[in-house]
Structures are given as structure tokens and as C-alpha cells.
């Protein structure tokens, strides 16, 4: 029996860009035909982009997707194509249609609709009720959409109908635990059914979600036949042997570094680049403080966009150390970005002077500290407006969790690359990026002095973060248990943490929900990100 030759389109298809997505599909169909593919496979909701959210409530949007699907069907002579799209027939379904010989031959509807984490499928779609199977060059193939493979029933239905191969199209977002989970689930489905599995995933950033690709070929015995690299756009070639129910990849690209730091860094770069480019901004702007968060954000921005599209601004006051001034300038010059130093001491003092009569009888406190941060926010927003460069916020997840950030100050920004990255991980990523630069003979991307210094907001004399917070190793360990694992205070204390520290940290997390609601979006890279995924009430008596 002849092998089935497949082309897998691990590419980005932008939300709402229906005509552009269809044009890309048409080009890839042509490439697949030229390469001798029997079938070319596209990700979940290719035509609409994923997730289209309330665009799905607009009849004109659904009609545009339907029109493009029919037009694409005309381009499939000589090669079949499996395309993801929203399908409206009174109700809306998340669908995968097989296009062949100029027509839409079969349409499969997603059966398992996820409604957890970042997913809201039940808000928009109705579930399908059976798994579609189709013959492609003598091979019986089951058609599944994303969550369908995470449940045993859809794959079992396909196997009962005689399927030898399962094609699963996905828009599965990346987080730091996802790939291990995927491989475990796919291996289990293959062993349960005896079917080989082609798992094709979307790649690219969409607002707060980042899709990694990392497509997989799984043999009928559950073993992994091939892994595609994460965050790489590629037309992947594969062959299926129906006799052995095995798959093979043809010259798939290989990741140079598949460590968790490398993949996480790639996720942050991709999320930042796609957010800026898809929203049509020419470049970005950020406040460079001489601290590690802004230093890592600058490195990410340069890697994402190129130095010519990045502006960094140092805004010193009387409390800014020479170490901060030197570190910021050294990094800006090393990376070759547009760099400005704007002393805000006089501007800050003018605010203090104007407020002094209204502050009569009250001593200095965090109000004056926050006023420095807000002065910087005013300056950065003005520069962003004047130069048309999107402002990046530089705060990390540890700070956002406990409210160690100033509304309308250092929280100013339209996108926050480190929003879902704990402080301890910021250090790991900074050291990893420097190690990569050293291997390439490029020197330090982030000055070692910036990495090694005690973290400080520098809003008063001799200030360090640990004046207000537990050491970050301890803080992050508590936060991860409370946020990601949803553990109770008692459970966290039972693991050896001091009860008073746990109570204080948890209180800060719950107290600062109102701040997080006003924070910029940023790429989701953990299993419980603030914003789209973790949605706690602001007003709540639960403690």
C-alpha cells in the first residue's frame, strides 16, 4: 500500500485577517501541490484566526470566512486540504473542512469545547456530535479539532469507524508545562486506538496568548516519531505508512536549544513581536532604570524587533545610583538602541511643591515615592505619543501579584513582556541570554552588575525590594503555590513556610486585584496567568 504524503502548515494566521489568511492558505496549497503532497493540513480556525472572540457574533465576519472557504476549495485540484474555520448553519461550529477536487467534501465539527483557562469555546460554539472520517488515497482518516484529542471518545469513535490515522488541528497555547502534557495525552490516545496521530499546531502571538507550534507525529504504538521546534513557522513534510501505522518527518527543523529557558525566551520574543507588528506600531519605547526587569525587557525588545525599532529612556532623580546610570547606558550602547537621559528631579519637585499646601500636616511617605514613578509615567507616555512608539511596561509577575507597582507610574504601558514571569525566572532568563551571547562571541546583552545587584525601586535612600517583600526565592515559592496550584494558606504553611509571611503574601495578592485589572496585557507563559486566565473578583470578603 502506498504511503500518504502530508504537508503540515505550522504557521501564524492572524485574528480577523480573513482575506490575508485565505491568501496564505492558497499559497501553501500551491506549495504542497508542487511538493507532491496528497494532503496539506492547516491549524484550527485558520481563516478567522484564533481566538476570534466576539468577531464570531458578527454575521458579516462569518460570511467572509464562508466565502473564502468556498473560493479556496476551487484551488484544491491535485491536492486535498484540511482547513479550520468557523462554520455557521444557524448555529456556529468550530469546524475543519476537507477541500478536494474543487469542492468542500466533508466538514467535521469540534465536539469537546474547552471552557477553562484561556478558553471560552462554549460562549461561541455549539458542539459536534460525531467524529468525521474520510478516505484519502486508500487511508481511512479521522478528523479531530484540538480539545477532541484530549478526550477519549472522539478518537475512539474514529477508530471504531476504521480510522488508521488521526489528523488533529490545533490552536493550543504554550505554557511551561504544556508540551509534556500534550505528548502524554497523544501517546495515550494512540495506544488506546492503535491510530497514528498527526498533531498540527498554530504558531504566533495573539494579545495575551502565545501559540508555539511544536507540532508532533505520533506512531500507532504511542511513540513520538517527530517533533517540530517551537515558535518556528514552517511547512512540515511527513509520510504515513498504513501497513505499520507509523509516521516519519522529512527534514524537520531542529531547535538549537530546547531548554525551558530557551523556549520561554522564544515565547516572550514571539509574543512581543507579534503584538507590535499586528497592531501596526513602528517600534517600542521603555524606561530603562538600570534594574534587571527593564534590562531583560530591553534585550527581549531588541531580539523581537531589532535595535532600530527600540527607544530606551533613563529618567534619574536624586535617588538614582551611579550603578543604575552606568548599567543602563552600557546596555543601551551595547545593543545600539536610541537612548535618552531625561532628568526628572525638577519636574518631580514641581509636583511636590504644587501639592505641599494640600499635604499640610502630613509627613512624607509612599505618596512621594509613587509620585516619582508617576512623573516617569507622564514622560514616557508623552514620548510614546510624540514618536508613535508603543510603551512597554517592564514589571514582572511577582511584583504584579503583590502590588509592588505604581498605578499610572511604572504600570504605564500598552504591553508587558514580563507580566507572567516571576522575578526568580527573570534572573534565570537574563543569565541564559548572556550565556547565549557569550557563545556567539557577542559579550553581555545584560551587564553582569545589573544582574548581581540587590533589586531596588530607588525611590528613597538605600532602598531595596526586600525592605517591603520577602526574599524573591521565598516569595515566588509562596506565590506559585497560591496562584498556580490554588493551595490554601494552611497547605502552604504545612510545607515549611512561616505562617506570618504566608498570610502577608496572600493578603497582598488578594488586596491588589484592582491594580491588576488596570495593567497592560502580556504574554501568558505559566499555567495561571493574571488577566484572561485568572479572574478573581475585585470586591470580595474571602481571605
Automatic annotation (TrEMBL):
Pathway: Cofactor biosynthesis; NAD(+) biosynthesis; NAD(+) from deamido-NAD(+) (L-Gln route): step 1/1. Deamido-NAD(+) binds at residues 370, 399, 515. Keywords: ATP-binding, Ligase, NAD, Nucleotide-binding. Gene3D superfamilies: Carbon-nitrogen hydrolase, HUPs. The active site is at 44 (proton acceptor), 44 (proton acceptor), 110 (for glutaminase activity), 146 (nucleophile). L-glutamine binds at residues 116, 172, 178. It catalyses: deamido-NAD(+) + L-glutamine + ATP + H2O = L-glutamate + AMP + diphosphate + NAD(+) + H(+). SUPFAM superfamilies: Adenine nucleotide alpha hydrolases-like, Carbon-nitrogen hydrolase. It comes from the Bacteria. It is an enzyme of class 6 (ligase). Residues 4-242 form the CN hydrolase domain. In the C-terminal section; belongs to the NAD synthetase family. Belongs to the NAD synthetase family. This is Glutamine-dependent NAD(+) synthetase. The gene is nadE.
Amino acid at each position: 500500500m502506498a504511503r500518504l504524503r502530508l504537508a503540515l502548515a505550522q504557521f501564524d494566521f492572524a485574528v480577523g485577517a480573513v482575506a490575508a489568511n485565505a491568501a496564505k492558505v492558497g499559497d501553501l496549497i500551491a506549495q504542497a501541490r508542487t511538493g507532491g503532497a496528497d494532503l496539506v493540513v492547516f491549524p484550527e480556525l485558520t481563516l478567522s484566526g484564533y481566538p476570534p472572540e466576539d468577531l464570531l457574533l458578527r454575521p458579516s465576519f462569518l460570511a467572509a470566512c464562508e466565502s473564502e472557504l468556498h473560493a479556496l476549495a476551487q484551488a484544491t485540484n491535485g491536492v486535498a486540504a484540511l482547513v479550520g474555520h468557523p462554520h455557521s448553519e444557524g448555529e456556529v461550529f468550530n469546524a475543519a473542512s476537507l477541500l478536494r477536487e474543487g469542492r468542500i467534501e466533508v466538514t467535521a465539527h469540534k465536539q469537546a469545547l474547552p471552557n477553562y483557562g484561556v478558553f471560552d469555546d462554549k460562549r461561541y460554539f455549539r458542539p459536534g456530535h460525531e467524529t468525521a472520517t474520510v478516505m484519502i488515497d486508500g487511508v481511512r482518516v479521522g478528523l479531530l479539532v484540538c480539545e477532541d484529542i484530549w478526550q477519549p471518545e472522539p478518537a475512539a469513535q474514529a477508530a471504531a469507524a476504521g480510522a488508521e490515522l488521526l489528523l488533529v488541528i490545533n490552536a493550543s497555547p504554550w505554557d511551561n508545562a504544556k508540551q509534556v502534557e500534550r505528548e502524554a495525552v497523544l501517546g495515550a490516545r494512540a495506544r488506546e486506538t492503535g491510530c497514528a496521530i498527526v498533531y498540527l499546531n498554530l504558531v504566533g502571538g495573539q494579545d495575551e496568548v502565545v501559540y508555539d507550534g511544536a507540532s508532533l507525529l505520533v506512531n500507532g504504538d504511542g511513540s513520538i516519531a517527530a517533533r517540530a521546534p517551537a515558535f518556528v513557522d514552517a511547512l512540515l513534510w511527513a509520510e504515513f505508512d498504513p501497513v505499520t501505522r507509523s509516521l516519519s518527518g522529512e527534514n524537520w527543523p531542529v531547535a538549537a536549544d530546547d531548554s525551558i529557558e530557551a523556549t520561554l525566551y522564544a515565547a516572550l520574543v514571539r509574543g512581543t513581536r507579534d503584538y507590535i507588528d499586528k497592531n501596526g506600531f513602528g517600534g517600542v519605547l521603555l524606561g530603562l532604570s538600570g534594574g534587571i526587569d527593564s534590562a531583560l525587557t530591553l534585550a527581549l525588545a531588541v531580539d523581537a524587533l531589532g535595535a532600530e525599532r527600540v527607544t530606551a529612556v533613563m529618567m534619574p532623580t536624586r535617588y538614582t545610583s551611579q550603578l543604575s546610570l552606568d548599567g543602563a547606558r552600557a546596555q543601551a550602547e551595547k545593543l545600539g538602541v536610541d537612548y535618552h537621559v531625561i532628568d526628572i528631579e525638577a519636574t518631580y519637585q514641581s509636583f511636590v511643591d504644587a501639592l505641599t499646601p494640600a499635604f499640610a500636616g502630613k509627613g512624607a511617605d509612599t505618596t512621594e515615592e509613587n509620585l516619582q514613578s508617576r512623573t516617569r509615567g507622564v514622560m514616557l507616555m508623552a514620548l510614546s505619543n510624540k514618536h508613535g512608539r508603543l510603551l512597554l511596561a517592564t514589571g514582572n509577575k511577582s511584583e504584579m501579584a503583590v502590588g509592588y507597582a505604581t498605578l499610572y507610574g511604572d504600570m504605564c504601558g500598552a504591553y508587558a513582556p514580563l507580566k507572567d514571569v516571576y522575578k526568580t525566572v527573570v534572573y534565570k532568563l537574563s543569565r541564559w541570554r548572556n550565556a547565549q551571547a557569550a557563545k556567539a562571541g557577542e559579550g553581555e546583552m545584560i551587564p553582569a552588575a545589573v544582574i548581581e545587584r540587590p533589586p531596588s525601586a530607588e525611590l528613597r535612600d538605600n532602598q531595596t525590594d526586600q525592605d517591603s517583600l520577602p526574599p524573591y526565592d521565598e516569595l515566588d515559592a509562596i506565590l506559585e503555590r497560591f496562584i498556580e496550584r490554588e493551595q490554601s494558606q494552611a497547605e502552604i504553611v504545612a510545607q515549611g513556610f512561616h505562617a506570618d509571611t504566608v498570610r502577608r503574601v496572600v493578603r497582598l495578592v488578594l488586596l491588589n486585584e484592582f491594580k491588576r485589572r488596570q495593567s497592560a496585557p502580556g504574554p501568558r507563559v505559566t499555567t495561571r496567568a493574571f488577566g484572561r486566565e485568572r479572574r478573581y473578583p475585585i470586591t470580595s470578603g474571602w481571605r
